[in-house]
Design a protein that fits this description.
The structure holds 2 protein chains of 2 kinds. Chain A is of the alpha/beta class. Chain A contains 12 helices and 17 strands. In chain A, the strands form 2 sheets. In chain A, strands 1, 2, 3, 4, 5, 6, 7, 8 and 9 form a 9-stranded mixed β-sheet that branches. Chain A has an 8-stranded mixed β-sheet with strand order 11-12-13-10-14-15-16-17. In chain A, helix 3 crosses helix 11. Chain B is globular, with a radius of gyration of 24 Å. The relative contact order of chain B is 0.14. The chains are: A alpha/beta, B alpha/beta. At the A-B interface, helix 8, helix 9 and strand 17 of A face helix 3 and helix 11 of B.
């Protein structure tokens, strides 16, 4: 047996019962026969892939949270391509949630795989025989793309979940993503959790410009300041790209290394400045200043709300926008509730790449 | 032309509610504290509340803005679907105001106009949604006073709408009078007659089921469907003082004329040309126009069963009879149960009866529509048997929302024997997330100007036209159909069972 069996990072108690791959189907059936008070539910196949062995335990916790709102067949895959021998181990368990006033347990089953070694199509061939037929596949690829992200794999994916903010060097990864999407003729949609991270900020921004006088302010904005928390530079750039795109501004020039840019609106220049601050929030503050006043969105570290201040010479209004997404599980839950427009995402990425300095020189 | 917020462009999965002031008449009532304000709070919690929305409670009792907010907060803590967040409430409640006035007092409306102007000056936006949640007797009075105060007319580019709670009239004549009173003040396009059943996810899903799935529409007709049953059962009686209202209204007016007729129209309507409010409502009106009216009291007696419950047991709890209930006249002739057979004279539904049953103190609370398909020929698996192997499609409106399909399946084993099995879709297991309350959806729609889920004036009148004939037969001078009885906790009177038996059918066992 490979040495991984003894790896202390695999808490098999959380993963459920380890079962032989050959008998997996039978054991899954037994899981449901043993308790009639439990109802198996599934709206999709939800796979999480990671090349970190320890991810199995963390992702089991994520699945437990996700299944509170999205019943699914969960497939957790931890790959260890560096292992000398090829081996596959599997565990099964169920995540049950009480509904109907606590009378009924709705359960989602989980199959966890630990796949060691290298063999052609090992991951797709092992995992995809356990997909529930007719249900869509949402596939969360954790970390940077590896050689295992290949056409055999993404051809069966309906929704690909990624978190571009977790990539140390996002530019080549984003290019790889776009290539795969085009190669697959747009066969899968892309759900980037970094994009979801600024969803509620976008909603709050939209709401701010419903306030009387705010659109006049927008036409005269002189400076846009976007602060981002530790490790969330890409989220801030995505938010900025969205603003530029929505408001039909032009990105004129800038110094990406200093995070300072010039954008224009009807021939009038505005400063766009990014600043890193010490905050756990992705984008803790956005401020648009102009002669009519300021619009400021603030997301405090301990608050589940985004605070909006529309402080204009005509009057001042404050409002709260819910921002319940923080953890990866919450982001996924939020993402799965919504549809997605992948074409638009890739359109925005062009501006994001410019803000990251891809086209410099 | 109003400038467009560019940041809104790509986020709308539905029409965005506009900034407005919601004025609730009868704001001291339960509906305001238990339904309307929690609905607005939950919309705020979802981040969908229009910016600068204001809520003005209009009622007769003396109270301050602060005490009104405190009362609402206490109830919201108990009933809010998404729980109660102090910080959100603190922000949301600043938008709530109280206005004390008698409903007939012109001066009170002049002061209301002033308050609304002040709120507009503070950024409320100038749009107004008047919500009539008073006793129905006050509907015409409030409408007239709004007109006299000029509140029905919006400023240029703005709107003024009215939402009217049920009951909309007590018969055709009163509904017509009320419609005239409404139209004297508001255009039909600005009138939103609420029927909260239409705000339920499951009711909205009827059209999706029928028109977004290719497999149902081809068989949704008299060639394949034998009959349709609509059941709305309640396991409560007249608790909480509701007897006073109920004994005047009765089951037919309280439930059938509005909720059940609306469900029936969604099941029976033709595909609309589009999903606009009038596109859908035009088709519903055609259903109402096609209802075969009863000709006389004898025809009513043959097709409609009315009943009251007698002493019995519901869920192991002793229950008194209808006439012994609180605020019920001891010799009341008001029905607490109705079962009826409805025919729709259209090409599609010729020969397909719709059976409706609705009542109080039945064994359980459930609302559902069951579509009973014709039985397969008795030539192969069911030759020589009396097996009821017909397929039944059940749309569960509440509780346990979902859809199931009954099909025949072979019992495992060497013999070829069939058994009925159920394919089941449940909202709770598929979508997990709790559905929004009906009032949340309806308030959002009213603020967005989408009247699809609200009844139109002619719809209401057509429904009353049909119901009036039954009421007249029941309360006429001669030939009154009998009042039947059933023990509380049973599934209704024997006469209701007989209504289907005479057609060779049975009520679905629930």
């Amino acid at each position: 047996m490979p040495s991984l069996i003894l790896d202390p990072d695999i808490p098999s108690a959380d993963l459920g019962n380890e079962v032989p791959l050959a008998g997996l189907g039978m054991h899954l059936k037994q899981l449901w026969q043993s308790n009639e008070a439990k109802t198996k539910a599934s709206l999709m196949n939800f796979a999480i892939y990671s090349e970190e062995v320890a991810s199995l335990a963390e992702n089991t916790a994520v699945i437990h949270e996700v299944t509170q709102e999205h019943a699914c067949r969960a497939l957790l895959i931890a790959a260890h391509p560096g292992a000398a021998e090829v081996s596959v181990r599997a565990w099964i368990t169920a995540h049950c949630q009480l509904t109907s006033g606590g009378k009924k347990a709705i359960c989602s089953e989980q199959i966890a795989f630990l796949i060691a070694g290298q063999s052609p199509n090992l991951v797709p061939n092992t995992v995809f025989s356990w997909l529930e037929s007719d249900l869509p596949l949402t596939f969360w690829w954790q970390g940077e793309f590896s050689p295992r992200f290949e056409p055999h794999l993404y051809a069966v994916i309906d929704r690909l979940v990624i978190d571009s903010g977790s990539w140390p060097d996002p530019l080549p990864q984003l290019r790889r993503l776009e290539q795969a999407w085009r190669h697959d003729h747009g066969g899968f949609t892309v759900n980037d959790l970094t994009w979801t991270r600024v969803l509620h900020l976008r909603l709050a921004m939209a709401a701010a410009f419903d306030e009387p006088g705010a659109l006049d302010h927008l036409r005269e904005v002189e400076e846009i300041q976007i602060d981002y928390g530790n490790g969330h530079r890409l989220a801030a750039k995505m938010f900025a790209a969205w603003m530029i795109h929505q408001a039909a501004w032009n990105l004129e020039s800038g110094r990406p290394s200093e995070d300072s840019f010039t954008v224009s609106q009807h021939g009038r220049d505005m400063r766009l400045v990014f600043g890193q601050v010490d905050s756990p929030r992705a984008v803790p503050r956005v401020q648009l200043k102009g002669p009519r006043g300021v619009i400021c969105l603030t997301h405090e570290p301990d608050s589940a709300w985004i605070h909006t201040l529309v402080g204009l010479t005509t009057g001042s209004v404050e409002r709260l926008t819910p921002c319940p997404c923080d953890t990866p599980a919450e982001l996924v839950i939020e993402r799965l509730r919504r549809g997605c427009k992948t074409k638009r995402y890739f359109t925005l990425l062009r501006t994001v790449r410019a803000l990251l300095g891809e086209y410099e020189g | 032309m109003e400038a467009i917020n560019p940041f809104r462009e790509d986020q709308a999965t539905r029409t965005r509610p506009e900034s407005c002031t919601v004025v609730i008449f009868g704001a001291s009532g339960d509906l305001t504290s238990r339904k309307l304000v929690p609905a607005l709070y939950n919309i705020a919690a979802d981040g969908e509340l229009p910016p600068t929305l204001r809520v003005v409670g209009f009622a007769r009792r003396e109270k301050s803005h602060q005490s009104f907010r405190a009362e609402l907060e206490a109830v919201n803590r108990k009933v809010s679907r998404q729980g109660h967040d102090d910080r959100l409430w603190a922000s949301f409640s600043q938008s709530i105001f109280y206005h004390q006035s008698e409903f007939e007092d012109s001066d009170g409306y002049a002061r209301l106009a002033k308050l609304l102007d002040d709120l507009d000056a503070q950024g409320a936006g100038g749009n107004r949604l008047f919500y009539l949640s008073t006793s129905p007797d006050y509907f015409p009075i409030v409408l007239e006073q709004l007109r006299k105060a000029g509140l029905h007319q919006a400023a240029p580019g703005k709107w003024a709408r009215v939402v009217i709670e049920k009951p909309f009239g007590t018969d055709l004549a009163t509904a017509q009078i009320l419609n005239r009173a409404v139209h004297d003040t508001f255009d039909e396009k600005d009138t939103y007659r609420i029927d909260h059943y239409l705000g339920k996810e499951t009711a909205q899903n009827i059209m999706v089921l029928r028109f977004a799935n290719a497999i149902f529409e081809p068989i949704w007709n008299n060639r394949y469907i034998d009959h349709i049953q609509i059941t709305c059962a309640e396991n409560l009686g007249m608790e909480g003082g509701r007897g006073g209202y109920y004994d005047k209204a009765g089951c037919l007016r309280d439930m059938v004329q509005n909720h059940l007729m609306q469900l029936l129209s969604l099941v029976a309507m033709e595909p609309p040309t589009d999903l606009s409010a009038d596109g859908v409502r035009d088709e519903k009106v055609k259903v109402f126009r096609s209802l075969r009216h009863f000709t006389d009291a004898a025809d009513v007696a043959k097709n409609v069963v009315r009943a009251q419950y007698t002493t019995g047991t519901v869920n192991g709890k002793a229950a008194v009879g209808y006439r012994q209930e609180d605020r019920i006249h001891p010799e009341s002739m008001t029905e607490a149960y109705v079962a009826m057979k409805i025919n729709i004279d259209t090409w599609r539904w010729e020969g397909v009866p719709f059976y409706l049953r609705v009542g109080k103190q039945l064994p359980k609370k459930t609302t559902e529509i069951s579509v009973h398909f014709k039985a397969p020929p008795h030539v192969l698996f069911n030759r020589g048997t009396e097996d009821d192997s017909a397929n039944v499609l059940v749309i569960r409106i509440q509780p346990d929302e979902g859809i199931s399909l009954r099909i025949a399946s072979k019992i495992p084993g060497p013999a070829v024997r069939t058994e009925r099995v159920k394919m089941d879709f449940q909202y709770s297991t598929s979508f997990g997330k709790a559905s929004p309350e009906a009032y949340e959806r309806l308030l959002l729609d009213a603020m967005s100007g989408d009247a699809t889920l609200f009844a139109r004036g002619d719809e209401v009148e057509h429904a009353w036209r049909y119901i009036d004939i039954i009421e007249q037969a029941w309360h006429g001078e001669t030939g009154q159909p009998p009042m039947c009885h059933y023990p509380a906790g049973s599934w209704g009177p024997a006469e209701a069972d007989e209504l289907l038996k005479q057609d060779g059918r049975n009520w679905r066992r629930l």
